[in-house]
Design brief:
heterotrimer; A mainly alpha; B alpha/beta; C mainly alpha; B: 6-stranded mixed β-sheet; 10 helices; 9 strands; C: 2 domains; 62% helix
Amino acid sequence: MRKTADEQELVRRVARGDRAAFEQLYRRTAPWLAVRLRRRCADEQIVAEVMQETYLAVWRAAGSFAGESVNGTAVGWLWTIAARRLIDAFRRRARDAAVPLAAEVVAPAAEDEVLGEVVGDDVGLALDRLAPELRQVLRAMVVDGLTVRETAVLLGVPEGTVKTRARRARLAMREALS
Amino acid sequence: MARVVDAAEVAPRTYPWEIAATDLRVRAGRRMAVDGVDLSLATGVHGLLGPNGAGKTTLIRALATVLRPASGELDLLGGADVREVRRRLGYLPQEFGFYRRFTVREFVEYMAWLKEMPKVDIPGAVQRAIERAGLTDRADSKLKTLSGGMVRRAGIAQAIVNDPAILLLDEPTAGLDPAQRMQFRQLLRDLTEDTCVVVSTHLVEDVAAACSDVILLDNGRVVFQGAATELAAAGTAADAGDSPMERGYSALLARKGAAG
Amino acid sequence: MTTEWHASTALVRRYVAGDTGIAAEVEWAVEVHLESCAECRAKVVEHASVAPLLDQVWAAVEPATSAVPAGRRRRWLATWASPAMVPWLAMTVLVTLMALVADLTINNSYPSLVLLIAPIAPVAGVAAAWGRGMDPAYELVAATPRAGLYLLLRRTVAVLVVVIPLLAVTTWLSPVRWLLPCLAFTVATLALGGFVGMRRAAIGLVAGWSAIVVGPSLVAARPPAVLEPAGLGVWAAVLVLGACVVWLRGGAFNRLDLR
């Protein structure tokens, strides 16, 4: 039997007003969320804002979240809340200044192959060979689960550009894998 | 959450305008309330102005797909089928009816269900919509305990819950005080980038502040369509009105009345 | 998966430090994995140096926890029967029970009142399922993708689920006598409602049935001929015809009816 409750169970307890459970949920998931957000946005202020809004939303709407049986991953839904809040923050800022994206993946270090960290094989190579802007779009859509419109806000490019890059990325991946 | 991206989602857009109407005629009761209207609206906030009985509500209803046009063409989102359009549509009617015993959250969740949003997304989207509409504190109060202005904000929340591509608001600021109207205009500005918003109102100053272009409707026909500044420029000191926009408004209506 | 892949501690350290040198596909794999693996997330907690950020955010979030979050209120019922329908269903139940009381107290040779009203029992509930006068959120609902025949039938099912068991319990006559007429009237309300509006259809059907069948039957103290088993064929035909009309006119139920 598991000693500690998993995140789903914690949310159920939060829905009943259990503040200790909420704090536990925070301690367990906030570091992960902070790291992930930081890898998408260089502005620490925005990251703090987004995290604040996310956990406030979890507290306030815990009843509804607990009620839905979230298929898939336990904290995936936490990410979807945070991702949408990140988009909203970018929308608010976009008018005033350019959106502060995180630093791009430059070149994969040689150690990765040595350490045997390379997971996939053909997929990995194809991904690495993709132009960075194409990879950015793919990551936003596939890993972060954003829609075309949201990706456009995140990357600060028009929707049409997002679509074009996504198509080129898919094409490139398909070619590389065939 | 990791997901698969299908080809349809990234296919290039085939339509230039979110809303494209050609010679649209819509009946309301016995008379033809919308009588030959041409529209091409892309993303941005479009103000729909006009005197009472001009056909604004009928036009908005036709755009919301709740009234079938009598004749003419109406292509929403490139002529997608009605159910698909409605999934990406947000509508707040002038007579906003609601279930009094529901809380704000329950009501917006119910509307999200009716809009066929994926069940998993509903709680998060509802919370976000409630926050954007400025109702965070009253999210779990029953609708019958809210003031008129807050009820209307709940209406706005249900309209934006599905992050619509087309947002239709019929007199959304009715009953809101000036501070709330400013908040509402801020919300509109946030939506401008990627949503086609049509706001029907008789308050000229709402239009001036928030809209990128203005459509002036009179007797079912479009009298003027252009930037808000052009509307202001159409008026002279001789026309009735307290602001340049109001003067432009009465000038154009009078001109149309004299000519037509 | 034969062997589960977990992110090694070294990799987690680099990920957490914001290392941009991690190969893209490794980074992706790590992120997707972290969403589902609590163990590796715990590793992140261990190695991440985000304490000041976490404290700052918690300081802002913690005060809000003095307000109790609302528990889960199930409004699932509203997806079957809209709140506007509930009073009409309640009225139907009440009237049926009153008819039952009347039946029990009055002379046995009198025609059963419950049987007489059985066919029109669902009409009020069905009429309240869709219509401007009945449902305050009518226009809002009409603009949604779920509006239309599917929603209407769903709500109709909710009405029948209430009415039919109620009738089965309150009348000791076999369902054969009243079930088919009951369904036929349900479908007729929908069919007529598509043409003249639900409220008018309901009023017309109820008034018509009362005047033509219920009244004379009570006056003559005889069960009505139309509810004899012999007439079932006619009811079945009405049911099928009505169903066809409803199917063909489905489009009327997702638009505004401005009458």
